[in-house]
Amino acid sequence: MNRQSLHFTAPGRVNVRAETLPPPSAPGEVVVQTLASAISPGTEMLVYHGQAPAELAVDETISALGGTFSFPLKYGYAAVGRVADLGPGVDPDWRGRLVFAFNPHESHFIAPIANLLSLPADIDPETALFLPNMETGVNFLLDGAPLIGEQVAVFGQGIVGLLTAALLARLPLASLITLDRYPRRREASLSLGAHASLDPSAPDALAQLQSHLQADRSYAGADLTYELSGAPAALDVALAATGFNGRVVVGSWYGQKRADLNLGGRFHRSRIRLISSQVSTLTPELMGRWTKSRRLQVAWHMLRAIKPARLITHRFPLAEAAQAYALIDQHPDQCIQVILTY
After folding, report:
1. What b/e readout covers 92-103, taking b as 16+ CB neighbours within 10 angstroms?
2. Which of 287, 290, 288 is nearest to 298 (CA)?
3. What is the largest CA-CA distance in the chain?
4. How far apart are the first and last CA of the chain?
5. Scanning 77, 150, 203, 283, which has its CA 20 to 30 A from the CA of 135?
């Protein structure tokens, strides 16, 4: 069998290559024919720009994402497809089943059934593409632990930021303020329940944010701030927006980009807590009750509730993947979620 696979070959360059795919031979393996895969505009654009640390393992927990971030490499982690062929010992009921896989962008792939997630009957393939980013959003809430009546700010309304805002909007917060440079994302943020969405590039952006967060001036500043923009400079602004003893959850991955922080001013006396959050692990404080399986079930449930497929702005066939990445790179204001079709 032949397949088409997307390869990142150099900064700013991707191509689609034909490869030979052997039939599944190991017990428990199947061939999945991909229907669609989602491009992550955060992590994948770091790879696309060559800003991911080349020596870093692509993923230490997902077997389909082996090797390091050195070129050339396959990458991607949100594929939905249909089981097309069965290896030894696989129950015939698997044939034709719709499944989700943390797999790079390619038309067909072999995977152990233990690594596949069957789509619930009430979730369509395009909605299922949002599972990894929804699980990331769930993880951000577990790590930030928002409380009733808190003031929350979210920097960055890319797809992860939007899903996180949608989750936060379901809580009884005093205020939920989001920030993003692009009007299309700010409009989407408001539609998902943010109380206000601001342009962080405006000269008075911090003053605007503080104004929204100071309805009760005895609690000036955000109780909880999320930095999800992927821009290191935003972290310094996020710290400035956070009140005494507030929490700042850093969900962005900056790759090789460094953050220049002013820690010598108010931060020094304000007992602000910086929290690193990454979806490959659970915060140790919750591991007595929470597992990845439990978190995943919450993510499926929230996909049903939020219906994020409405955030898809562009669909490209795999053969036009180079145009898809160029669009995200050159016109981020035009797109929210871009998917590849097969």
Report:
1. eebeebbbbbbb
2. 290
3. 66
4. 16
5. 150
Domain 138-285 has CATH 3.40.50.1950: no
Answering whether pTM is above 0.85, one says yes
Q: Beta strands 337-341 and 312-317: pairing type?
A: parallel
C-alpha 264/C-alpha 137 separation (Å) is: 31
3-state secondary structure of 332: helix
> Tokens in use for 321?
């993947």
For residues 74 and 120, is the Cβ–Cβ distance under 8 A?
no
Sign of CA dihedral 166, 313, 36, 121: positive
pLDDT, tens digit, 9 for 90 and up, residues 230-271: 889 999 999 999 999 999 999 998 887 888 888 887 888 899
Quick: pLDDT tens for 263-317. 887 888 899 999 999 999 999 999 999 999 999 999 999 999 999 999 999 999 9
Domain boundaries, the chain: 2-129+308-341, 138-285
Whose tokens are 């992590």? That residue is 43
In CATH terms, the superfamily for domain 2-129+308-341 is Medium-chain alcohol dehydrogenases, catalytic domain (3.90.180.10)
Distance CA 268, CA 9 (A): 44
Residue 224 forms beta bridges with which residues? 152, 247
Judge if 2-129+308-341 and 138-285 fold alike in CATH terms: no
Q: CA-to-CA distance for 324 and 124, rounded, in angstroms?
A: 23
